[in-house]
From TrEMBL:
Single Gene Ontology MF annotation: nucleic acid binding
All copies of domain RNase H type-1, residue ranges: 14-126
Name the UniProt record assigns to this protein: RNase H type-1 domain-containing protein
Record PANTHER family: BNAC02G40300D PROTEIN, REVERSE TRANSCRIPTASE-LIKE PROTEIN
Length: 142
């Protein structure tokens, strides 16, 4: 795969959350760093699902057609890989993810440990710290 996208999502104690992505090219050089802000939810499982959904959407908008997505939320990744949209919690988002995966055949999703996902985790922490309730997403400077 020409690109690797490291994804993370998290929830803050005061009813908001964030997702983040770090994209590296085939040489391992960081190409993009992007954060997503989510308001009004308190569930880390849902934030992780939303982070993957939004990362796939964002990559497709940028014209990236062959991307391997990595994340550290093993339970979430297993649900996505099993295409288990029957799950009541997150079912709609799982259906969206399944449709996106069908639409973009060059995308794959796999588990990676926290130590290999630290940059995405840091993007999420930075996004949470900004508390930009009026902003849904933004790019970080490299």
């Amino acid at each position: 795969m020409p690109f690797s996208c490291y994804v993370d999502g998290a929830v803050a104690p005061c009813s908001h959350g964030a997702g983040g992505l770090v994209i590296r090219d085939a040489m391992g050089i960081v190409c993009y760093v992007h954060g997503f802000y989510y308001a009004g939810l308190l569930d880390s499982f849902i934030f992780e699902l939303m982070a993957f959904r939004d990362a796939i959407r964002w990559c497709s908008l940028k014209g990236l057609t062959e991307v391997m997505f990595y994340g550290e939320a093993k339970v979430v990744i297993e649900k996505i890989q099993r295409r288990d949209a029957r799950d009541v919690k997150g079912g709609r988002i799982l259906v969206e993810l399944e449709n996106l995966q069908r639409q973009y055949q060059g995308f794959g999703i796999s588990f990676v440990g926290r130590s290999n996902n630290q940059m995405a985790h840091d993007v999420v922490r930075k996004t949470l710290s900004l508390l930009l309730a009026s902003v849904e997403s933004f790019d970080f400077e490299r």
